[in-house]
Structures
1.
Amino acid sequence: MAEVKQVQVTFDCASPRAVAAFWKEVLGYVDPPPPPGFDSWDAVDATLPPDRQGGVWACQDPTGAGPRLFFQRVPEAKAGKNRIHLDVRVGVGLTGEERVAALEAEADRLEPLGARRVRLMRATGVNESCLVMQDVEGNEFCLD
């Protein structure tokens, strides 16, 4: 059986660079280095046919601990709920109102970047509170 070396999370989107810029700010991620022979990703992009320019972007955890995120342009608009989403874990170890306050503070930071609040899901006997959000293109994620 093959051993998994890395995980990449891929986003279908209309504007890969803009969605990547949002997630870099959310997670503290950076652009990967450009391939050998290029001084920037813009230089790489300029070598592509016009219809493919701006069609992909990526970002990665500078520490190497988190998964690489890849963004690819698709022609269709988002329709319906995501079948998979990211949980941004800002409330680890917190409970009750202290946890809700941490979630709300992070939402306050992300809204000027283009994030939108969807709903606060209050703690139940099984799960702690989380805050459902949307990124700049309406993809759901949770502040957890």
2.
Amino acid sequence: MSELADRLASVRGSIADAARDAGRHPNEITTIVVTKFQPASLVAELAALGVEDFGENRHQEAQAKAAELASLGVRWHFVGQLQSKKARQVRGYATAIHSVDRASLVDALRSDAATIDAFVQVNLTDDPGRGGVQPDEVDRLAEQVLATPGLRLRGLMAVAPLGEPPRPAFARMHLLSERVQNLAPDAQALSMGMSHDFREAILEGATHLRIGTAITGNRPDAG
């Protein structure tokens, strides 16, 4: 096995262990491999190993990879901050956007054609510079997504705050998710958990993990 295959197998094993510890089935959890700054060849190798979901956080890079690898039939998740002016272009290749964080972006993503999955991003810190809406604004943005043609509200997304244990933050997300489900019973997805904290996320109900370096290895320098 290659080092990449070894890392993928190790992470998959850890995900399965955490799911069992949470009383869940591993099949309930979608692993999105974040391939920021990684070459298209690595995506192709991962696809050959059975990976179907990939995450990117820069539109230009994501668009180029999606075009080059169109024949693979994989799913692209946009997980970074998205400028409203790029929204329509991102709809062209992504199956899901995990970083819906403001009303103007929801408006920009409106479409009478194809439907794309949308996750409302929550800011779990007091830093307004971090992406996401504050918890008390989640319901309002979720209602706007629900009312917007071309968007399907899947649930919520968050990044655990730096410098504190992640599990309490993920527990807050679990409660927020239950609140959103009062508005939209089908919006049960929770996109949370990265290379260093996916176990804690699974224990608190994560359905979508965004894992990069634990699988891909260290990132090359940005071009």
